[in-house]
Amino acid sequence: MLETLQIDNIALIEKLEISFCKGLNILSGETGAGKSIIIDSLNFVLGARADKTLISYGKDTAKVSAFFDISDSKRTKELLDEFEIDYDGEELVLQRVMTDEGRNTCRINGQKVTLAMLKEIALTLADIYGQHEATGLLSDENHIVILDKYAKTALLKPLEEQKSLYEERNKIKKELERYGSLSDVEKKTDMLRFELDEIEKADLKEGEEEELIALRRKINNSRSITDALSAAKNLLDGDSDGGALIAVSSAKSQLSSVEEYDKRYSEIIERLDSAKIELKDIAETVEGFLEESEYNPYEAERVEQRLALVRTLKRKYGSDITEILSYADKIREELDFYDDAEYNIEKLSSSLKKAEENLIENSLKIHAIRAEYAKKLSSNVCSQLKELGMNNATFYVDVTCDEHNAGPEGADSVLFMFSANAGQPAKALSKVISGGELSRFMLAVKNIISDVDGIQTMVFDEIDTGISGKIAQVVAEKLYNISTGKQVLAVTHLPQLASMADAHYLISKSTTDGKTSTDVSMLDGEQTLKEIARLLGGSEYGVHALPHAKEMKEYSDNYKKK
């Protein structure tokens, strides 16, 4: 239930707070006073599309907060848990802020959420119905939704079973499609074996490509390497006086001749011996490298061929050797999957046939329930339409079943058929119903299904346009009937509806210092009578209007007592 609506900088409202009551809340006022601003603000905080023109002139942000009592809103609490939004106690606060740059910020209980999350939560809290929303009844795809709401309890388990059966059928179908026909399997496995054989014959190793590239670079630079190694070898053990080993030997001989004069010379001689051994080992190693560095055309050809093979496999199976080897593993898994394909296809085909039979059987069960409730809904709507002055109207719910096209919601198509005049055949509702008839039709439907949709707050925005006299009284009574089970907010010009109010709010417009603003005030008993008198078309102090308003209020009070 909507407890409080706080509005900041929306159109002509700078700052406003309205507290609503249980039952029937009526909003009335002169044309242009700003009744639509209240509904627009509520729509805004519930997630409806809005643009920056909603922001008050001269302001850079607009904000609306709505406080709801969710003590009886089971679905709301389930969604809050699903979205991991904290809620303490039974109050829920929705808030939406929009800047003049068009940016939106949405919060639920102070926690930032997406607009989509806000809208989904809001759908469990309130429904707003106006002349534009009534056109939703003209959309054929909404007819099955309305019928299913009406038959909610009876369809709950069958529809859950339908979704489960549909998912199971699709799972089997998808697995069977993966096999294809036996000829498809044979072609696929032949191709997979060819690919795997090509990869396995290559006998690739992780890091091999990098090693081959390095080896090719070495081979291509073998002349430079040979020259450098030869020069190094000559410098180490060359026959000339410039060889490092000869130089070390000469240094040792010179120091040995004076060794007896200083023990420290002996230490240097030992170090020269070690250096000589190390230099000799280095020279031998360089000599070994030199022998290896000779250009080998056969090795060069082997490296080029190996690299060409790697490049070919990369074009086919992966960007590098790791991916190629990973692809080979996947091929092995696929080949394992195709083992015993004939047996598995036969088994899956049998399972699919059974799953489709179960799906069709459950679809027919759903169809029978829908057909049963379609008759009840047709009868109830016709009764409601007669009470709303459409005595010659014909209405029925047409439910057709295409059992071979079963989906998660069953196999039914639902269409509302309507005729406003006697002797005229019923046709699709969207083709024949007028605007005035549509408002009454919507009220008839909402009056019937209001007890089963689970939403605690319903808002009716001037759906009584074009209605007067006896029908106006019937509309007032029907809206009051709805309000006995849930909260109703109704913007109206009808005195009959205003007289039914449990709480009456007057929307007015005033100008101060050249600035126009919209205000809302809750009326007391005497003020309510004056507003009803104004709605009757007479001065609130008129000779006839005020007594008539009192009569209407007394009638409404007596009706409510019943």
Q: What is this structure's SSE topology?
A:
Blueprint: E1 2-10, E2 13-19, E3 24-28, H1 35-45, E4 61-69, H2 74-82, E5 91-99, E6 104-108, E7 111-113, H3 115-122, E8 126-130, H4 141-150, H5 152-179, H6 182-202, H7 208-220, H8 222-237, H9 244-256, H10 263-292, H11 297-317, H12 321-338, H13 341-387, E9 394-401, E10 412-419, E11 427-428, H14 429-432, H15 435-449, E12 457-461, H16 469-483, E13 487-491, H17 495-498, E14 503-512, E15 515-522, H18 525-535, H19 545-561
Parallel strand pairs: 3-13, 3-14, 8-12, 12-13
Antiparallel strand pairs: 1-2, 1-4, 4-5, 5-6, 6-7, 9-10, 10-11, 14-15
Helix pairs in contact: 5-13, 6-12, 7-11, 8-10, 9-10, 11-12, 13-15, 15-16, 18-19
Descriptive terms for the model:
elongated; alpha/beta; single chain; 562 residues; Rossmann fold; 15 strands; 55% helix; 6-stranded mixed sheet; 6-stranded antiparallel sheet
Explained architecture:
This protein is of the alpha/beta class and 562 residues long. It has a domain at 1-125 and 455-471 and 480-562: 3-Layer(aba) Sandwich (Rossmann fold), CATH 3.40.50.300. Helix content is 55%, strand content 17%. Helix 15 (435-449) runs parallel beside helix 16 (469-483). The chain is elongated, with a radius of gyration of 44 Å. The chain starts with a strand and ends with a helix. The model has no long low-confidence stretch (mean pLDDT 87).
